[in-house]
DUF4395 domain-containing protein
Amino acid sequence: MIDPRAPRFTAGITAVLLLVTIVLSFAYPTDPQIEPAARILSPAFLLLAALSLLFLWGATAGVKRHPFGWLFRTLVRPRLAPPTELEDPKPPTFAQFVGFVVTFAGLVLGALGVPYAITIFASLAFVAAFLNSVFGYCIGCQLYLLLVRARPVSRRT
């Protein structure tokens, strides 16, 4: 079980980094005429790639082992009152997987030269991270619960 404030803290950091990615994507737009190596080395692409790897880390290792979760446990949680309730880590872990899929799709399309692919997919991920950090509404968690109710995802796995 995890402190429900940890995913919101993680989403806040992620939202800020995604916003920086969006700004950088406007400063360095993806142009199909640019060589693929130049597209891949753009600051927006590199930052989105780093965020995508962090999402993958959270999806495979779990939210308890995520670097931002470690920051929360080490720097923030000791200064807060104990949580009134704990939360199952499976929905936030699945949300990390959804974040990976969205950001990875933006990376692939951006590398292929699709105009504004990085901007669009970083914006989608930003909206999800913003909703989680500010309002506590986790789109990936809600998707997980819908899949559990529909039975494609087992509660034991």
Residues 3 and 85 are 7 Å apart (CA to CA). The mean pLDDT is 89. The chain is about 70% helix and 0% strand. The helical segments are 5-27, 36-40, 43-61, 67-76, 90-111, 117-135, 139-150.
